[in-house]
Amino acid sequence: MNARASYLRTKALYLRELRGYFDTPAAYVVAIVNLLLSGYLFASPLFLQNRAVLDSFTSAAPLLFLFFIPAVTMRLYSEELKSGTYELLATLPVLDEEILAAKYLAALTVFTFMLAGTLLYPVTLFALGRPDWGAAAGAYAGLWLTGACLAAIGVWASSLTRNQVVAFIIAFLIGFVLFAAGKVHDFMPPGAAALADFLGFDSHLNRLARGVLDTRDLAYYASVAGYFLYLAALDARTRRLTP
User: Fold this and answer.
1) What pTM did the predictor assign?
2) What is the C-alpha R_g of the chain?
3) What domain range is 222 assigned to?
4) What is the tally of structural domains in the chain?
5) Which string of DSSP letters, residue by residue, matches 36-80?
6) Residue 164 has pLDDT above 80, yes or no
7) Cα 202 to the chain's mean position, in Å?
8) 113: Cβ contacts below 8 Å, ≥ 6 apart
9) Cα–Cα distance for residue pair 130/124, rounded to 1 Å
10) In whole angstroms, what is the distance from residue 144 CA to residue 181 CA?
11) What is the pLDDT of residues 177-201, one digit of tens each?
């Protein structure tokens, strides 16, 4: 009974958060701009180099996510903290974890819709040739997991401040560190290079994009997302206990 009650509360909060996205034009603007830019990245090698591949899209998509996912998550806690509705929400018989789960799942849903809009690209490749569907599925799985990590970072950043711009900047900077770590490891000493390679998105995404399923990569994504969601839960609990 308690588990069902928790599920129903989380579902109600989730639907509330989802309505908050689609009742304003922000989510639509972010989705449209993301599709335009990602479409350009996909079409460039197709028309300029006559190469029907996903590589240009999958390699650059995480950089786009650094901007668009913080834009999706920055309002989750910050807006409610600024308006005072979070204090009202905290007085209701709901757990901090349920509020967090609802906010994270709503952001993840919006991101999933954004990513789903790009599925036209592998379909186009199928019409033009014989793409490796295992690699394409792995690439999309890696992109979704990367987005899930960035969404968790964004939720945590939003829980820190009432200012949405500050939340955006914090989420962007942390995401950029993880993005850049995978790019600069070749220029670092061996020990530091191995650490940077593991912490960065690149090596994990590249293996999945080649169709290689490694449990270490899945553990990496789960650990990063779980860590920042744990920090967000701690911050929410501290705020509830602080008079």
Assistant:
1) 0.91
2) 19
3) 2-241
4) 1
5) HHHHHHHHHHHHHS----SHHHHHHHHHHHHHHHHHHHTTTTHHH
6) yes
7) 15
8) 31
9) 10
10) 19
11) 999 887 876 667 777 778 888 888 8
